[in-house]
């Protein structure tokens, strides 16, 4: 099997040897191949359909279903199947491209009568030469939905790589991101309820949270002015962190930074039972993301193994066909199969 790429379409070509030895009733599958980051198969048969006589060649493109798909998956593609004329390449059968959506209800598209049996088997037509037929597909992925691309580092047969997809995690931990290098651009200090100079970006968060939890102000009223200023700045920094950091931001550095902010805040005597679950959730996000990556890796491995099994099954079918072809050839040459153990007098225990 070989593959290449045209201007827009990625191409896969399947050389089917000993074509006449394949069962004319059953579907015959190519090895799975990757185009646009997604797995496909080509299927052919000669059983005939409502508009095709038995022996006419039917060819289809099939979207291989894997663990990377979720409910509602779809691939919107433009594609064309082709049958190579091995005598005159410019006489190959390449119909106009189709634009369709592959999904769970319609995962196979193609043509029931791609070429008639008489034309296929006519030696002057060049489609079947030395019992070899060359079938292929050109595919362009317009868009897809609810399906992750296959890991492009797998060893499967694939077309020219068009790049792998990066899944962006956009869920928020509790909102605008902190600047890099932990440089919080929080604005100039402003007065907050006569409790001291609070960095400007923290004030709206503190006003909101103090309205919800009046005890925050009450527990600091007997403290010194400077102590209150430090306390509310410390509280504001934790709130700002939780509002501005997203799930994907919680790496080792971010977790360490939040842990420091939290430990500083605990010294100021606030009742933080309402806040602690949010902080612990954010601190646990790193482990969650690690687990999520492990799950995604396991899914990738599962998909690669599934596709490899399909590839080996297709190879086994081809090997069985080749074996039958060799046996037929030997029988035609009056070759007699002999049991050498019996002839040599070897006795099995």
Care to describe what's here?
This protein is an alpha+beta fold and 349 residues long. Helices cover 33% and strands 23% of the residues. The chain has eight helices and twelve strands. A five-stranded antiparallel beta sheet has the order 1-2-10-7-8, with no helix packed on it. Strands 3, 4, 5, 6 and 9 form a five-stranded antiparallel beta sheet that branches. Helix 4 (225-244) packs antiparallel against helix 5. Mean pLDDT is 81; it is low at 2-6 and 154-183.
- Major sheet summary line: 5 strands, antiparallel
Proportion of residues in extended strands: 15-25%
Number-wise, the strands total: 12
- Tally of individual helices: 8
Question: What's the order of the H and E elements?
Answer: EEEEEEEEEHEEEHHHHHHH
List the helices and strands and how they pair.
Elements: E1 2-5, E2 10-16, E3 28-29, E4 33-35, E5 38-45, E6 57-63, E7 69-83, E8 98-103, E9 108-115, H1 117-121, E10 133-147, E11 189-191, E12 197-199, H2 203-212, H3 215-218, H4 225-244, H5 252-266, H6 276-283, H7 285-332, H8 340-343
Helix pairs in contact: 4-5
